[in-house]
Amino acid sequence: MARFVNVAAGQLGPIAKSETRTEVVARLMAMMRRAHADGCDLIVYPELALTTFFPRWYFEDQAEIDEFFEREMPGAETRRLFDLARELGIGFYLGYAELTVEAGIVRRYNTSILVDRTGAIVLKYRKVHLPGHAEHEPWRKFQHLEKRYFEPGAGFGVTSAFGGVMGMAICNDRRWSETYRVMGLQGVEMVLIGYNTPVHNPPAPEHDHLSLFHNHLVMQAGAYQNGTFVVGVAKAGIEEGVEHIGGSCIIAPSGEIIASCTTTGDEIAIARCDLDLCNSYKRTTFNFDVHRQPRAYGMIVERKGVTTMADGTPVPPKA
Ligand code: CDT
What we know:
Layout (H helix, E strand, L loop, with lengths): L3 E8 L9 H17 L4 E3 L17 H5 L12 H10 L2 E12 L2 E11 L5 E6 L19 H4 L8 E4 L2 E7 L6 H8 L5 E6 L15 H16 L2 E6 L2 E3 L2 E3 L4 E3 L5 E4 L6 E8 L2 H6 L5 H4 L6 H5 L17
Parallel strand pairs: 1-2, 2-3, 7-8, 8-9
Antiparallel strand pairs: 1-14, 3-4, 4-5, 6-7, 9-12, 10-11, 12-13
Helix pairs in contact: 1-3, 5-6
Keywords: Hydrolase
Organism: Bradyrhizobium zhanjiangense
Protein name: N-carbamoyl-D-amino-acid hydrolase
C-alpha cells in the first residue's frame, strides 16, 4: 500500500525583535490552518521560529539572552499551536531555543521538535553543528554567536511517524553529509530542516552570491545519497537589517525539488510525498548494506579536521 505524506514547508518572513511570542504564534497558526485546508498532514516551520534570530547580537546580560529561550514546551504561548494541531489533526516541526536544567545545571540548546497529529511530541532534536563564533567580534556587520549561546546536541535520532521514518536537523547541519548519513543508516525517509541563513557571510563574502545555490546543493545531495525526502524551510527576508535567503523547498529521493516557495515572506509550499519512492534508491544505488565499505571510513570518526593547509601553513581559524 502506498504511503503518502502531504507536507507543507511553512516558510516565515522576518520576525522583528519587538514581535511578541503571541504575535509569532498567530502567524504560525494562520499557516497551519492554510496547510490543513490544503490537505496537509504535516507543516514544517523554520529554525528558531518563535523569535528573531538573536545570535546576530552580542549580549552581556544573560537575563536578556534568556528572554529568547523557552523553558517549557508547550509553554503558555505555544500551547495554542499544539491545541490547533490536535483540533485539525495535523503535525508540525518547530525550531526554538531551549533552556533546560539537567542535574542542577542550566543547559541551552538550539532545538526542534516533531509533533504528531494528536499534539504529542514524538521526537526532539538538538542542533549538532553550531556555526559561527563564541567571542565578541564587532568587526562583523552582524555576528553569529551560536557557539556562545548554545551547546551542541548529541546526535541524530529518527522515529516512526506519519507512516514513515522521520528525522530532523537544523540549519548548518544541512551542509554536512554526516547529518544525512547517520539518519540514512537508520532508514530515514523524510528529513525535516529549518534554517536561518544570512545572504552575507562576514568571513567569506566571496560566497555571498552562491548562498541560495549552496542551500539547494547540500539538501538535494543529502536527499539523493540517502534515498530520502528532505524538507528545508527558511526564515527569510530582511530581519533587523540582515538579509536572509528564502529558497524553502521539498526535495524527492531523486534529488529533485518538487515544491518550493517563491517569496521571502510567510508562505507555504506543498508536496504529496510518496514515501515508497525512497525504496528504489535504498534498494539499488544506495543499498548501504550491499555497497558501503565502513572499513575504509575510519577517519570520518577518528579525525575531527585538517589542521594544516596543502602548503604546510596552519588552517586559519575563520568561523
Ligand atoms: N543558523 C545557521 O546555522 N546559519 C548558518 C549560517 C552560516 S554562514 C555560512 C547556515 O549554515 O546557514
